[in-house]
Amino acid sequence: MDWERFPHRRYNPLTDEWVLVSPQRTRRPWAGQVERPPAVSRLAYDPDCYLCPGNLRAGGLRNPHYEGTFVFTNDFPALEPDTPLRAVEDQPLLRACGERGTCRVLCFSPRHDLTLAEMPAPAIRKVVDAWVEQVLELGQEYRWVQVFENKGEMMGASNPHPHGQIWASAGLPTLPAKEDAAQRAYLEAHGRPLLLDYAELELQRQERLVAWNDDWLVVVPFWAVWPFETILLPRRHVRHLGELGPAERDSLADILKRLLVRYDNLFEAPFPYSMGWHGAPLDDAHPHWQLHAHFYPPLLRSALVRKFMVGYEMLAEPQRDLTPEEAAVRLRELPAQHYRERKSVKGDQNGPTAESD
Ligand code: H2U
Ligand code: ZN
User: Fold this and answer.
1) Largest CB tally within 10 Å, which of 90, 198, 324, 327?
2) Active site residue: 112, 161, 163, 294, which one?
3) What is residue 349's predicted lDDT score, i.e. its pLDDT?
4) pLDDT digits over 74-114, tens only?
């Protein structure tokens, strides 16, 4: 079958879901919503930012004068450690259960104006170390530790200061539970972890590769839903972030930089996304699990035109026009140097990323 020309459905073996791909539609005209260009902060320190060193947060606590990364308990947590775990299940149609957990915020850098993409690799390595520490620490008490970053106004991030979040919970949330079941079934059927087989296949085929180094690869997954969605995979069997050795943490910083620079270069604008880590729960061995990170960017055609998950997607199933193979080629062929670095060399600070108001 000629994937490039005909509508078809692709299977996501990690979640047991399908996506409709309609490559024949990529040339349809667009007259829909155009977003405002994202504002780029040029301030290294913002006295009004609740994440900058030394500043006061909502709730009255003051940040220390931190120099690398900084972690604090979210002042408005979605989960709390002392919630009773009672379940209400006497009516099968009205089920609920208490959930216990905690939420933390992780500042990636004291610099208000940087993003992960623009941080030097050794500074990104410090963020990797913070992720590892948080997973190992919170994994002692909680079954699931969700490390994630919402980047950009378009994704609802409340503040341009580079930061991510960590939510830990006693129970396994819906999406990790699906991935857990699929990976368990695959190991039972094939004797190897699903995503280890998948990484090998993608390294052989090379059609969907975006970036790679000795320990990691990034691909637009065969079953991607978002136009420029990617998955970051280790090349050996690694169950969770806590299993990464020092060299692998360095090479992780390297691959993150390669990916995020390409993302920013795609539309020469700060690239919004939600990303997060999925790894084995820390309560047991879980040999079926393979560590991976998902990147879900909302942009479609430019820094101003986003994809909406509406209509058919809310009611039937996700759909995309651009094929994952086309998206991978576009990302792979972008320059490895960040566009802002290139432009500052030329002395040009204007363009689509300039402050919008
Ligand atoms: P975003 O990653 O979506 O920008 O969210 C940042 C978090 O920071 C958000 O969960 C928390 C919010 O509850 N926050 C604090 O903990 N203290 C503050 O002073 C403001 C925001
Ligand atoms: Zn700040």
Assistant:
1) 324
2) 163
3) 45
4) 999 999 999 988 888 889 999 999 999 999 999 999 999 99
- Which ligand is closest to the CA of 274, given by its number? 1
SS3 6: coil
Ligand 1 atom closest to the Cα of residue 156 is 3
DSSP state of 172: P
232-262 in b/e burial notation, b at 16+ Cβ within 10 A? bbbbeebbbbbbbeeebbbbbbbbbbbbbbb
Distance 332 CA to ligand 1 centre (A): 33
Positions in the chain whose pLDDT score sits under 50 = 348-357
Per-residue model confidence (pLDDT) at position 39: 63
Q: What is the pLDDT of residues 310-337, one digit of tens each?
A: 999 999 999 999 999 999 999 999 999 9
- Select from 178, 59, 52, 61 the least CA-distant residue to 114: 52
Report the C-alpha gap between 108 and 116 in whole angstroms.
8
Q: Whose CA is nearest to atom 3 of ligand 1?
A: 157
Q: What is the pLDDT of residue 310?
A: 93
CA distances from 228 to 2, 136, 274 (A): 21, 31, 12
Report which bound ligand comes closest to the CA of 109.
2
Q: Which of 74, 161, 167 to mutate to test the pocket of ligand 1 (most atoms within 8 A of CB)?
A: 74
